[in-house]
Specification:
This protein is of the alpha+beta class and about 70 residues long. It has a single domain, classed as Structural Genomics Hypothetical 15.5 Kd Protein In mrcA-pckA Intergenic Region, Chain A (Roll), CATH 3.10.290.10. About 25% of the residues lie in helices and about 25% in strands. The chain is built from 2 helices and 6 strands; from the N terminus they run βααβββββ. The longest helix has 9 residues, at about 25-30.
Length: about 70
Amino acid sequence: MTKTSDTIKLDQFLKVIGLVDTGGQAKMIIQNEVVSVNGVLETRRGRKLVSGDRVTVDDQTFEVDLDNL
């Protein structure tokens, strides 16, 4: 993925890292309240992430690095 922006939406990030295959799957896990961003529960799939943000799904944590997506 080529960097075209300084942000990425939460649902897109979950797809890019391979955690889900579709936007629908991303929407479901976000709405099921198992996703947090920087330690805070997040239920908005359009939440904009920046490099350095930490996304946790269940017990897996991923750091956003927009330069290497």
